[in-house]
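Case study.
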Amino acid sequence: MKKVLNRPENFVDEMMDGIIAAYGDRVQLLNGDKRVLLSKYPAPEGKVGIVTAGGSGHLPVFLGYVGDGLLDGCAVGNVFASPSAQKMADMIKACDRGRGVLCLYGNYGGDNMNFDMACETVEMEDDIQTKTVRVKDDVASAPPENKDKRRGVAGMVYAFKVAGAAAKEGRDLAGVAAAAQKALDHTRTMGVAMSPCIVPEVGKPTFSIGENEIEIGMGIHGEPGIEVREMMTADAIADLLLDKVFADMPVEKGGKVSVMVNGLGATPKEELLIVYRRIAQVLSEKGITPMMPHVGEFATSMEMAGLSVTVMHLDEELEALMRAPATSPFYTNENI
Amino acid sequence: MKKVLNRPENFVDEMMDGIIAAYGDRVQLLNGDKRVLLSKYPAPEGKVGIVTAGGSGHLPVFLGYVGDGLLDGCAVGNVFASPSAQKMADMIKACDRGRGVLCLYGNYGGDNMNFDMACETVEMEDDIQTKTVRVKDDVASAPPENKDKRRGVAGMVYAFKVAGAAAKEGRDLAGVAAAAQKALDHTRTMGVAMSPCIVPEVGKPTFSIGENEIEIGMGIHGEPGIEVREMMTADAIADLLLDKVFADMPVEKGGKVSVMVNGLGATPKEELLIVYRRIAQVLSEKGITPMMPHVGEFATSMEMAGLSVTVMHLDEELEALMRAPATSPFYTNENI
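After joint prediction, the assembly is written out as follows.
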C-alpha cells in the first residue's frame, strides 16, 4: 500500500491536523474535537445554520465546503464511515444562531440514522429547530420509481452552494431548506469508475475492476453500479453519462445548466476537459446553454480513477444563488 | 490503458477544445491556433507581457496560469514535449504591448532552445524586447555546484505569481524579470514519485517503480531521481523533502515561508494535508512562520502518484507580490 500516511488509524485525525495547520485562520475545531469542523468566517447575525456530515476520504467533500456562503459546520467520520449522532448534535448546537439549522447531507443509512437522532436530541434538549434535506442526486443508484433510495454524490456541492447563498441572504430555515431542495430537484449526477481506492485501515483495494473494464454508475465508496462495460472513448463516456442524466431530468431547448465534470481522484484534469468539451458540443446541439463550469475535483474517493457528470438545471433563482460569492479553503466561485 | 480520451493523437487538441468550451470567456486561442493560449482578462495599458511554454500533461501547469495577475500567454506542446519556436514567437508577438515580454519557463533542453530561437526572431523581425528567466527549482535534479542544470517543477507557480503581480503593478521588463528571478532565488522544490503515468501516444507506463518503493527526486516526466527507497511514512517523507530543501536554501529562525504541497496527480488531498501537518510542525520547531499555504494540485504529471514540497522564503517584497490578487480558470489566491 503506497498511501502517504503514518498509522492508518490516525489518518483522519492527522488530516484534520493538516487542515487546521493550513487553514486555521478560517476554520476551527469545536473545542479541539477533531471530528467537528466549524467555520470562522464572519456570518450575518441570525443567519440560519447549515451543517453536513459524512465519512472521510472524499475531499473536498464534505468538510471542504465549510466556509463563507457555504456550510457552517461539518461532522467528520472515519474513512467512508458516518460520524456519531453525538458529534452531529454538538455541531448543530454550535451552528445555531437562534434561527435554526439545516442538516444537508448525502442519503446514506448511517448518516440518516445519526442525523435523525442528533436532530431529535437538540430539538428536545436545546429547543433548536432543525430541518433535513437529503442529497439523492446519483441517478445510477436507484430507478426513477425509487428516487428516495438514491445516494448523494457530487451534486451535493451545488446544494451546499445554493443553500449557503440563501442563508447568507437572510432567508429563514424553511426558505433555506426549500432552496436546497429546489437545487437538488434540479440536479442529477452519473458517474463511472475505472479503478478502486484503498481504505487506509483495510490496506488493499476494496473491490476490483477488470483491466479493460469500467463500471457505469459505481458509487463513491465502490457500491456496485448498473453495468460493467469495456473501456470506452471519452466521447462515448460523456454521451452515456449525459444521456442517463437527461433521461432522468429532461432539459428543454433554451434551458441553462451548470455542468460539473468531477474527477474521482486519479483522473487527470486534461481528461476531464476532454469530457467537458464533448458535453459542451452535445449541449450546443440541444440548444442548451452551459454556464459556471465546474471542472476539477469536487467530490473524490481518494485515489479512485473515474469521473462523474453533474447537471444542474438553472432557473433565474438558482442562477443568482449560484453566482453569489462563496469561499472556503477548498472552494471558491471567484474563478468559476 | 484506461485513459479518458478519444484518439491519443488528438489528446492535446481536444483538451484545448475543453478549455475554450469551459473558459472561453477568459482565455482564447491565438487566431484559432490550439497551441497558443492567450489571456482575455483586461490588462493595464503598456503592461509588460509574461509568457511561458511547455509540454502538456501537467495541468494546471503551464497554461492554467494564463490569467489576471499571472501570465499573458502560453505555448502548448504535445504531452511532455516542447512546443515549436514558431508558436513561441507568435505568442510573444501577441503578448507585447510595447514594453517587452518576459519568457519565464522551466529549464528543459527543448524549451530552452526553442525559446532562444523565438526571442531572437521577434527581436530581429519585430523589434520586441525580451528577457528570459528559467525556472530551476528542483533540488534533486543537480547538486548545488551545478544549479544551472536543475529542472523547473512546481516552484514555477510561485514565479508566475510574483512576476505577474510585478507586471500588473507597472514595473518595466527588467523589473519584472528581476522579481521573477528573486522569487526563484528564494524557492526550492523536492519531490517523490510513487507510480508512473501514461503518455497517451505511448499507451503504457513510461517507467516503473517497485511495489513497495518510492523514488526520491524523480522528475515530473519520470526523469530518474537521486535515490530509490522503501515506502516511508508521511512524516518521514515530509522530513526528508524539507531537509533537502533547507540544506540547499537555509531559512533562519524568524523567517516567513509559503509552502506548497503539490500532488502529482493520483495522491489524495487527505494525504497532502497529512504531509502539510508535519511540515507545519517542523517549521514551528524551527521558529519559521508559514503563510499562504498551497496544498493541492498545482503542477502534475497526469495520473502519477506522489507529491512535491516547494518552499518560498518570503521577504516583504515577495510577500506583497504573493498577496496581490491573481486569478485564472485554474488558480486563484482569493482563498489562499
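Observations recorded in class. Chain A has eight helices and 13 strands. The longest strand of chain A covers residues 306-314. We will return to this complex in the next lecture.
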